[in-house]
Design goal:
The protein is of the alpha/beta class. 41% of the residues lie in helices and 17% in strands. The protein has 16 helices and 17 strands. The protein has an eight-stranded mixed beta sheet, sandwiched between helices. A five-stranded antiparallel beta sheet has the order 1-4-5-7-6, with helices on one face. The longest helix is centred in the N-terminal third of the chain and has 24 residues. The C terminus is likely disordered.
Length: 479
């Protein structure tokens, strides 16, 4: 019985989605349809009467109009059926209810603020002489309401309705985008839950091994949106968020390499990840050199695979992902390291970022504040996941997302910030990162995940490699 009901709901959801989709833009219309409905009812009743007289009395003079009357009855019958189905589907598909709710609230908003010029005729009908052009678009996580700046009497106030709209629509306004011809308000639908890591680990929800759960509205599919940039001021929760990501990658049997030039919390994982944690210049260069070489070898192995074909990646060939985390990149690039080493490190990272997705190599860069000197627009745009934790300046947001206008963080707690996922969010959206709750022991969990780790996947450095760079200056310059 439950299975049949589930199929029934899916059919209704499909039909309802044909009625509403996220690309559709709805326009608020104040004009009354009373006269139109009276005219339509008269047309249908007249057609029915004529058809009845023609059929019952068999008047030959009415034969030529039978196609017209039948056509009118058929068309209006279909309209009535469509209307009935639309309201019927609303019980199964909440989006249709939301559309009606938003439409009625915006009409009420226009009347309350006297934005339209409405006259009442002697017959008691409303005649709309002027009404502002207001449209709205409904997404799964937000509502966008747009006001057309048409030069009307109250156009100057169209970008100052944040509090009034919040009160009427009952949603929180998270962004205002004033433009030349439009002023757009973005409202958040539903509360953003801050997930506990323990709950995510013990959740019954099935998440594929190429996806990392972020919150109740967002998931990061690193196969489709490769590489990441995570920024955050001191005390913003950046380290805890990074710890969660490392934990999730290890649970997917990924090989995780960590570069921590500041020797902060991440370097502690050397105890469990061995030589795949590097913090001095020589070891960082060696680690990246081996990663680039291994990546190139993977491409050669793919060609030898019996199912080698167009459009396939590491996952299709049965390989595990490789994650390279560079914690505090700016600290290394702006420090006193050898300029040749810096050049080699940057070129190696760019090589992996440009070519790594198909081979399953993913780079995660973290920093307290991005610097366009090292992470310019061309590199940033290739980092599909971008996170800014804590309150930052407009310049800081611009360095991370390419835009910093009107980003005002409303949440003050640790783990709050903005996130952008290429292909999923249209721009940076406010979010809360998963947090390590008191009942979760990160180190104990990492110890369990790395207990049966395949050490053959990890590099073993010789004493010579430990002392310095094991390749010539020509190799460095070549890279």
């Amino acid at each position: 019985m439950n299975k049949k009901l589930s199929i029934f709901r899916k059919i209704f959801r499909f039909v309802a989605e044909c009625i509403h989709n996220e690309k559709r833009v709805y326009k608020v219309n104040l004009k009354s349809n009373e006269k139109l409905w009276i005219f339509n009812c008269c047309m249908v009743i007249g057609a029915i009467i004529i058809e009845y007289i023609r059929y019952r009395l068999k008047i030959q003079e009415l034969e030529p109009v039978k196609h017209v009357t039948k056509g009118i009855i058929t068309v209006y019958s279909l309209i009535i059926v469509f209307k009935i189905f639309k309201y019927f589907f609303a019980f199964f598909y909440t989006e249709l209810k939301v559309i009606d709710h938003v439409d009625s609230k915006l009409k009420r908003f226009i009347r309350m603020n006297k934005l339209a010029d409405i006259k009442v005729t002697k017959e008691g009908y409303e005649k709309v002489k002027y009404c502002p052009i207001i449209t709205y678009q409904l997404f799964y996580d937000k509502l966008i309401v747009s006001f057309r700046l048409d030069g009307g009497p109250k156009t100057s106030n169209y970008c100052n309705f944040q509090n009034q709209l919040q009160g009427v629509i009952k949603l929180k306004c998270i962004k205002i985008e004033p433009g030349v011809t439009w002023c757009r308000y973005e409202f958040r639908r539903g509360e953003i839950e801050q997930a506990k890591v323990n709950d995510i680990i013990n959740s019954d929800k099935k998440v594929s091994k190429d996806t990392i759960f972020i919150n109740n509205q967002l998931k990061w599919n690193f196969r489709k949106a490769p590489h990441a940039l995570i920024t955050g001021i001191t005390g913003s929760g950046k380290t805890y968020y990074l710890a969660y990501i490392i934990r999730m990658f290890l649970s997917y049997n990924a090989k995780v390499s960590i570069i921590d030039p500041k020797r902060s919390d991440m370097s502690f994982l050397e105890k469990y990840l061995g030589n795949n944690v590097a913090y001095n210049g020589d070891d960082i260069v060696t680690l990246l050199s081996n990663e680039v070489e291994d990546m190139e070898n993977r491409f050669e192995d793919f060609k030898k695979h019996p199912e080698y074909g167009f459009g396939k990646d590491y996952f299709d060939y049965g390989y595990d992902p490789v994650i390279i985390i560079f914690d505090e990149l700016m600290s290394f690039m702006g420090g006193s390291s050898d300029p040749e080493q810096k050049k080699y490190v940057m070129n190696s990272l760019l090589d992996i970022i440009a070519k790594g997705r198909q081979a399953g190599y993913f780079v995660i860069l973290t920093t307290q504040r991005p610097d366009t000197k090292f992470i310019d627009g061309s590199i940033r745009d290739q980092l599909s996941l971008r996170v800014a934790l804590g309150k930052m300046s407009n310049d800081g947001y611009k360095m991370v997302f390419g835009t910093g206008q009107n980003l005002k963080l409303t949440e003050k707690k640790k783990g709050a910030g903005y996130i952008f996922i290429d292909g999923l969010t249209e721009g940076p959206v406010e979010f809360n990162a998963p947090y390590l709750d008191p009942g979760y022991d990160f180190i104990d969990d990492i110890e369990k995940l790395t207990k049966d780790l395949d050490i053959s996947k990890y590099f073993k450095k010789s004493k010579k490699e430990k002392v310095g760079v094991n390749f010539s200056e020509e190799d460095i310059k070549k890279n």
